[in-house]
Amino acid sequence: MSVREFVVLGTASQVPTRHRNHNGYLLRWDGEGILFDPGEGTQRQMLRAGVAAHDINRICVTHFHGDHSLGLAGVIQRINLDRVPHPVTAHFPASGRRFFDRLRYATAYRETVKLAEEPVAADRVLADTRSYALEARKLSHPVEAYGYRLVEPDGRRMLPERLAAHGIAGPDVGRLQREGALNGVTLDEVSEVRRGQRFAFVMDTRLCDGVHALAEGCDLLVIESTFLDEDVRLATEHGHLTAGQAARVAAGAGVRHLVLTHFSQRYSDPGEFERQARAAGFDGELTIARDLMRVPVPKRA
Asked: What secondary structure, in 3-state letters, does the chain show?
């Protein structure tokens, strides 16, 4: 059975707190796992969340600030210690290769797993598999940063009433799907397009074209909201979003489920992020991320 869920390992901005670990997130997408922005302490958070090194197929780093990457050393060594049986691919901004290399080889260990490095230097499709295309878009932050987006290929939804009207049933339905036509009846006549699911991961950034492109039409959007709206000038200065800005992006993009995360330790009331997101006009499903929570990808519309 396919599983599509987002596992939150940490939600703190800049420094961990008593209640929030550094960033770390795992997207389970059918049989694959994509680890995003493993900050300090991610390996232990994985243990607490029931996530194993074997669950990781890709690592996607948005940028090389410590709260988004200091956990790479431990995660990579754990992948090798546990002898993960499949290749793992790492995506990260090409300008930060020196940081990736330092973290990958921070200490001595035995390499037992093939870790492919695929740096990102421009907006492009990074991988195109049977179940998703992985895209990267440049963001606006003091250091080079990219957001990531998964797009499932569109499929077809068979329409029982139209099949019945044409007398198509049983094994003939499968034949029609495979061949595109059966006894003069085309697939288009008895089905409709089923839009593939979309997921986006947007971390440290100001408002920019990349943010909007990543969010467009997402079923699940995970996006930073480091600051509250009253600190918008501070957010812009440091290359971040406010809760209201993130919510307006989501509302304009038609996002179904919005997850806000990456909170500054200056705020003590998580509920204020939700209040400001609602005040900004987002009326879809809304989650204020907490460490170790699991968020299912919404079922297809």
From this structure: CCCEEEEEEECECCCCCCCCCECEEEEEECCEEEEECCCCCHHHHHHHHCCCHHHCCEEECCCCCHHHHCCHHHHHHHHHHCCCCCCEEEECEHHHHHHHHHHHCCCCCCCCCCEEECCECCCEEEEECCCCEEEEEECCCCCCCEEEEEECCCEEEECHHHHHHCCCCCHHHHHHHHHCEECCEEHHHCEEEECCCEEEEECCCCCCHHHHHHHCCCCEEEEECCECHHHHHHHHHHCCCEHHHHHHHHHHHCCCEEEEECECCCCCCCHHHHHHHHHCCCCCEEEECCCCCEEECCCCC
Q: pLDDT tens, 118-158?
A: 999 999 999 999 999 999 999 999 999 999 999 999 988 89
| Catalytic positions, written as ranges | 67
Q: Kindly state the tokens that stand for 151.
A: 């797009």
Contacts of 272 (CB under 8 A, 6+ apart): 228, 243
> What's this model's pTM, rounded to 2 decimal places?
0.93
- What pLDDT digit, counting tens, does each position of 14-48 carry? 999 999 999 999 999 999 999 999 999 999 999 99
Q: What is the pLDDT of residues 247-298, one digit of tens each?
A: 999 999 999 999 999 999 999 999 999 999 999 999 999 999 999 999 999 9
